[in-house]
Amino acid sequence: MLSILRSLVQEVNGARDLQEALDIIVSRVQKAMGTEVCSVYLLDPATNRYILMATEGLYRKAVGQVSLGYSEGLVGLVGSREEPINLEDAPSHPRYRYFPETGEERFRSFLGVPIIHHRRVLGVLVVQQRESSRCFDEGEEAFLVTVSAQLAGVIAHSEATGAISGMSLTGEEARDVSFNGVPGAPGVAIGSGVVVYPAADLDVVPEKPTEDIDGELALFRAAVNAVREDIERVASRLASQLRPEEQALFDVYLRMLGDEALPGEVANRIREGIWAQGALKQVVQQYVRHFERMDDHYLQERAVDVRDLGRRVLSHLQEGEQKHLIYPERTVLVSEELTPAMLGEVPKGQLVGLVSVKGSSNSHVAILARAMGVPTVMGLVDIPVNQLDGKELIVDGFEGQIFASPSSDLRAFYQAICDEEDELIKGLEVLRDKPCETTDGHRVSLLVNTGLMTDVVRSLSHGAEGIGLYRTEVPFMIKDRFPSEQEQREYYREQLEAFAPNPVTMRTLDIGGDKALTYFPIQEENPFLGWRGIRVTLDHPEIFLVQVRAMLKASEGLNNLQIMLPMISNISEVEESLHLIYRVYHEVREEGYDIHMPKVGVMVEVPAAVYQIRELADRVDFLSVGSNDLTQYLLAVDRNNPRVAQLYHSYHPAVLQALVRIAQDAHAVGKPVGICGELAGDPGGALLLMAMGYDSLSMNAASLPKVKSVIRSVGREWAMQLLEDVLLLDSPHVIKSCVDLALRNAGFGRYLRPGKTSSAAFAEQAV
């Protein structure tokens, strides 16, 4: 059976379309199981009916003609129960439904298994036999279940392809097709999809020898120089939109094109007698395999960069003209693997959204997208990219969702949201210099999370009172080595000066998990539970000491620095870190720098820390909750994984109970506590956190005006009553709905983020 299954999977994956795949399935399964009938019924989303789509053994004329209601007949029973049904005498079953046009009255034994993809029933796979004495055994049932699991992905992909094209299984019009990924950069965009394909295909390059080594070397060097000029041109085009440290991302590409890097290895292989294209293919594929084997997210992103460079060099080697893309006024760039260079190809002012099948919120593209303010969705599953070219798309970067072939109503709905967002931000500018204070006088500090200088400009214009989280790993990420003390000092000084005299909280280097450095690889099976955050820097004090020294020297004359320690899980880590910080402080003072000892705090993002708040607070000056990591650790959900991202919910009762406990325990020993994460930037979440007693909320700059407006318009007593009500609930979705309803009733419905909530509201309005 295993060899049959492998052969079947290969044939199905090679099918030209869904119908061919279904015909292969029913034919091969019928022969493999020795049955008289094998049929596939698919559930049509447009009509919610099962349609006979392929059969071997029933009358062929019934294909496409016979359909059953969602719970009708044995097929409907299999789908509704979502489990196999195995019967010796199907006609005697009370749910049996006879269709004369199929000719199935001859068959008595019945085995049906559901076809399920991501919890959604797509159809039912059925085998039937004439003899009533035959009962399909456990092995046959297991085989059919395995086949259905393989079939599910093929059907989902084909269904998406048809739906994007505007057609359902029955040939009727399909609209408002949605796909879920992960948020890359916040915002909503409406535009036309432009699919970007690789410049050239390295995989099909033949390997052949050459005798003209000098000629091949010359061709290769010319191609490398052409690609280098292309990248420099792209970097120059984006120069007005990006700060120098952000443009340094393009330096990664240029360094890869240095003589000592990839070109050097290719040249060596050419000298061994391999033609340029074959040598390039060998080296690039070797690099890609090396990175991909490391099972680390950031290193996999480097594989994308190498592959993209290889394709570009190959394109010049082949002297083939690249397809001339026409970019519409509102371009949504779509690709299997978006790269930074692709962004720069779009004329200035025309790029409104990004969609990438691969990648996550921490890839180079996502970093650039956030800096440029371009809504982005990444990590999409089962989406046929080539079908999106020229289609109108809605990109929801808040929820990580895109809509293809939107109806006029859905388009108008999201356009209204875009317009409201623009008007709202303009209207909230008057609040910039006003304090964030409730109507009954309770004061909350609103801070921002930053990593790039473009964040700072936006933060200051929105009235941020300081930085609650400066991600110091960003300067490390955009280089191919550890930045020197002087380089770090310049980065940190820029941030400290921009916000002086307001506080700037700098988190010490937080790598590992989903953040890694290409020049400092961390290879682990489970990086989120491994060597990351403070664990890395305490094991490498030379990194920690240089960073702290750069921070302290940068603070001279400003004295608005605060230092925050990430990923703390026990007291000894705090004590060891404090020892090193005090040591550096005295060394820097002895060097003649007039500095003050900064406040030192810890991030509460590991569940263990939740139960050590009092002990931690006794040793530091403040605490700050990293709600994103804390939530995913509490719920055991990787929020960057699109397959389980729907389980990640900041309003989960366990998360809210943990946040309440943290605030209470911190205040019990007289220490301030803040929070930085997505929940703080959500107007409803901010109200709950304010009610819990959090002293400061740190968020993305774009969220700050809305949060300030909501908090300034309510009393703390009102918020505390809302918190008391939701803490009695046991479902994160019900809690979110309750908070949203309270905001709407208070007149803040327009502040709710677009996405799943809004699209659900749209559906209700349509009904």
From TrEMBL:
GO biological process: phosphoenolpyruvate-dependent sugar phosphotransferase system
Catalytic activity: L-histidyl-[protein] + phosphoenolpyruvate = N(pros)-phospho-L-histidyl-[protein] + pyruvate
GO molecular function: kinase activity; metal ion binding; phosphoenolpyruvate-protein phosphotransferase activity
Signal sequence segment: none
Keyword field: Cytoplasm, Kinase, Magnesium, Metal-binding, Phosphotransferase system, Pyruvate, Sugar transport, Transferase, Transport
Similarity remark: Belongs to the PEP-utilizing enzyme family.
SMART domains reported in the protein's UniProt record: GAF
Domain of life: Bacteria
Iron-sulfur in keyword set: no
InterPro entries: GAF, GAF-like_dom_sf, PEP-util_enz_mobile_dom, PEP-utilizing_PTS_enzyme, PEP_util_C, PEP_util_CS, Phosphohistidine_dom_sf, PTS_EI-like
Record organism: Marinobacter santoriniensis NKSG1
Compartments (UniProt record): Cytoplasm
Entry GO CC: cytoplasm
Cofactor: Mg(2+)
Sequence ranges assigned to domain GAF in this UniProt record: 17-165
The protein's enzyme class: transferase
Entry keyword RNA-binding: no
Entry EC no(s): 2.7.3.9
Protein name in UniProt: phosphoenolpyruvate--protein phosphotransferase
